[in-house]
Specification:
The chain is α+β, with helices and mostly antiparallel strands.
């Protein structure tokens, strides 16, 4: 963990809180399945509270009424969201500010190389803070897409999003798409926001990995925001069809677009 890791996380929270405070209607549905703007804020509070070492909410949601939950991980993260449903905008914003302040104080009191309990086991602080910056920035984009206030596409947390979302491409290409051995996928991400290019190749053992530049069987080109929404499971490819171009094997390309989600 470095000072930059803390600063990036802190700035991502500040950006998210500032945007949320400017949105009048918190009950509108976001691209994050099942969650409103208020739920995005509640989720952010819940994870900041975990960083602050607060006790977990003693709460049992009505799971039958929460049809968007389909996994144990989803149930784990939904508890803190459902626990806060019905609270006012002002109350949630105050809780977010207070919880984040306490989380920063706790993290800064720990050794830079410490590991602490997290959602899927003990996690080193440098990785954890980068994950938090990524998660918070993506939820800021959820809120921006919902309200039409697209922006901050290259802000704090965006580089972390590029890292974590692109790291999931080999699983999509090799396992979810089932591309054959030797097949190469080229993903070209364009501005506005960040830009990047990734190649993924399936080995003879059927496992895919990120590789250096190679001749591609399929090249998929899309803007950064479309990449974030699709790999984040926020949208189907049809929602961004006008922004996506596929060259090469159309069947593999279509299967890739249908399987792009890499986040839980």
């Amino acid at each position: 963990m470095t000072h930059d890791d803390v600063s990036t996380w802190d700035a991502a929270i500040a950006n998210f809180a500032g945007l949320a405070s400017s949105i009048k209607e918190w009950g509108i549905e976001s691209p994050c399945p099942g969650w409103t703007i208020g739920d995005l804020v509640s989720h952010t509070i819940d994870l900041e509270a975990l960083l602050a070492a607060d006790p977990r909410p003693d709460h049992s949601p009505d799971w039958a009424a929460l049809r968007h939950i389909d996994s144990d991980f989803g149930r784990l993260t939904e508890i803190g969201v459902d626990y806060r449903r019905g609270r006012s905008k002002d109350e949630l914003l105050r809780e977010l500010a207070d919880t984040h302040t306490r989380a920063v104080a706790r993290i800064e009191s720990l050794p830079f190389d410490a590991s602490i309990p997290w959602l899927r086991g003990d996690t080193p602080l440098p990785r954890l803070l980068r994950m938090r910056a990524f998660d918070v920035w993506v939820h800021e984009q959820d809120a921006r897409v919902t309200t039409g206030m697209v922006g901050n596409l290259d802000g704090p947390g965006a580089p972390e999003a590029m890292h974590y979302l692109s790291a999931g491409l080999p699983k999509v290409w090799g396992k979810d798409v089932g591309a054959p051995a030797g097949a190469v996928l080229n993903v070209l991400i364009t501005e506005p926001g960040l830009a990047g290019e990734h190649w993924v190749k399936v080995g003879e053992d059927g496992k895919a990995a990120l590789v250096d530049q190679a001749d591609a069987d399929v090249t998929v080109t899309m803007p950064w925001l479309s990449f974030v929404m699709l790999t984040g499971g926020r949208a189907t490819d049809d929602d961004f069809a006008q922004d996506v171009a596929v060259v090469g094997n159309e069947d593999l390309g279509r299967r890739f677009l249908d399987s792009m989600a890499v986040t839980p």
